Amino acid sequence: MPPDPEYPFDPEEIPSFFDNWCSLPWSPWVPFNADKHTFHEIPHEPGLYRIRPAGKDFLMYIGETSRPLHKRLNDLRQNLRRSDLMPWSDPHTEAPALWAWWIEWASAAPRAVLPDHSVEVEGLPEGAGPVMLECSAAPLDASVSGRKGMAAFLLYRYRQERRESPLCNFGRFHPRYRKSTIRREGLRGGRLAEEHEDNPAGWPGIEPLEVTGRPGDSDWMGLEWTAWEPLAEKNARAVSAGAGLYLLADAGSHEIVYIGQSADVAKRLHDHSRKTGEDRTLAFSYQIIGQSVLPHNLRELANDLIGNYFGQFRKAPEFQFRNSA
Length: 325
Description:
Blueprint: E1 30-31, H1 36-39, E2 47-53, E3 61-65, H2 69-79, H3 95-108, E4 111-113, E5 119-121, E6 133-139, H4 144-162, E7 177-178, E8 190-191, E9 229-230, H5 233-237, E10 243-250, E11 256-262, H6 265-274, E12 282-290, H7 295-313
Antiparallel strand pairs: 1-6, 2-3, 2-6, 4-5, 7-8, 9-12, 10-11, 10-12
Helix pairs in contact: 4-7
C-alpha cells in the first residue's frame, strides 16, 4: 500500500541505500549475478527499484514498473550480460547507460581474465563477473500516476540528499560513450574515439532547486514564476524565448495539473494552447532558465518540481502521467 498520507515521508532523512528509505519496504540488495534462488528476494509485484554499484553508497538508477519487479530486473540483468556489446535502448531504457559505466569502471580497474573469459575486478566480491551491479526493490500498490509520482519523489529526495542525480536517470550517460538506439534503428553504441568530443549527456547534473514555498506560489522552489495567464494562443506567442519550465493549472482554482519543461517554452505553450478537448480552462506560468540548457538538466529541474508537488500533496499533478502506462 502507499505510505499513509497522515505521516510525512522519510521523517528521519534515512539515506537512499537503506532498507526503509522514504518509508518503503525495500528488499535486500541483490547482486545482478546472483543465482535464481537469491534473486527471488526481489518482489514479484509492480513497484519501484534502485540500482547501485555493489556495496557503494550512491545510486545509478531509480525506476518504476507496472510489471512484476522480479521479472523486470531479471530481464534487465540478462540484457547486461554481454560485455562486448552495448544493449539496445529498448526495452530497458537504462541498460545502455548502466553498461557504459560498468564497462568503463571494469576496464580501468586492476583485473584478471579468467578461464571462461569473464573479468574479475580487484576489490569486488569473489566471482563478481563482468557486470557487478546490485538492485533493491519495493512493491507499491498504486495507480500508474501514483507509482510514477512516487518514483519522481524518490529522485527528488535523492537529489536533495546527494546534491546530484543518479548517474543514469534523466538521460544522463557516460561522457566517453555514445548510446545505442532502439533495436529497430540498429545503431549500436560504444566507446567514443579519443579524438571525439565528450557526449553532452555526460556533462554534470544541475544543482537541485531550493525547497521553498508551495506549488503555485510566485517563488515556488526558489524560482521567479510569471503571473498566471489564460492558456490562449495570443498569450503563448508573447512568452519569452528560451529553455525553461512551465506550469499548467486550472484557470479558476490555480491548482497545478501539469509540470513541464522544454528547450523552447514559447513553442511548447503555443502547442498546448492549440489542443482541443481539454476538460477545463487552463492558465499557465513559466520560468526561463536560459537560451540553451542541456536536456538532462531541464529534466532534473522539472522532476524537482514534480517530486516536491508529490511530497506536499501525496499525488502527482492530474495530467502529469495521464497518457502513461
